[in-house]
Amino acid sequence: EIVLTQSPGTLSLSPGEGATLSCRASQSVSGNYLAWYQQKPGQTPRLLIYGASSRATGIPDRFSGSGSGTDFTLTISRLEPEDFAVYYCQQYGTSPRTFGQGTKVEIK
Amino acid sequence: EVQLVQSGTEVKKPGESLKISCKASGYSFTNYWIGWVRQMPGKGLEWMTMIYPGDADTRYNPSFEGQVTISADKSISTAYLQWSSLQVSDTAMYYCARHMLHEGMALPDYWGQGTLVTVSS
Fold it and tell me: Taking all residues of chain B, what is their mean pLDDT, rounded to a whole number?
C-alpha cells in the first residue's frame, strides 16, 4: 500500500501568517488522486482539496493544493482563527486508499 | 442538502456482535459509493471499506477485510458496518462518508457525525 508521510507533525503559527504543509508518498500517486481534509477537535473531517489542486465546494481560495507524483503541498495563504486544526492528505488512486498521519496547525 | 446521520454511541464487551448504521438523505443513495473510516482515540484516519448501493459492489482495505462487513439497504438509504466478534482494539470513532467520483475514482466528500464504539470487559 502507499504510505503517506506528512510533515511537519506540528506547525505553530500566528493568525495572518501563511502555512505550508507537505505530504510525501512512498510511490507515485496514480493520476495525482490526492485529497486534503481538515479536522477540528471533536468535529467531522471536511474535504478541502481533491485531484491535488481542485478546491471542494465552498472552500475559501486561501486554501490551495499543488504537487504531483510523490510530493504534494497544501498552502494556506493567510491563517484565519478557524483554520487551526489537523490536516490530513489521502490518496485515492490506488487500493487501499490511505491517509497520512496528519499535521496539526496550532496557534503560536 | 446532503446529510449522513449515524447511529449512537455503543458500549460492548469483547466477543459481542455489533451493527452500526448511517442514514443518507439529500442525494441519490444508489448513485454514490458510501464507506467507513476509522479513527482510533487520539489517532489519524484509516479508510476501511465502501459499497455501491446500486449493485452492492464492495471494496475493502485488506487490513479490515474479514474483520468487518459493509452492507446497504437502498430501500431506506442506509449503510451499515458490522462486526461478528468485537475486540478491545475495535474501540474507535467510526465515520461513514459518501464518496464522490473524480475521474472515476471515489473519495470521501460528505461525512457523518461519527459513531463512538467502546469495547471493554
Answer: 97
Chain B residues inside the 8 Å CB shell of A51: 102-103
φ, ψ of residue B29 to 5 degrees: the values are -60, -35
Partner-chain contact A97 B61, CB within 8 Å: yes
Residue of B nearest to A92 (CA): B107
pLDDT tens, position by position, A51-76: 999 999 999 999 999 999 999 999 99
Q: What is the DSSP string of B94-117?
A: EEEEEEEEETTEEEEEEE---EEE
Cβ B98 vs Cβ B36: under 8 Å:
no
Contacts of B61 (CB under 8 A, 6+ apart): A95, A96, A97, B46, B47, B48, B49
pLDDT category at A45 given cuts 50, 70, 90 is very high
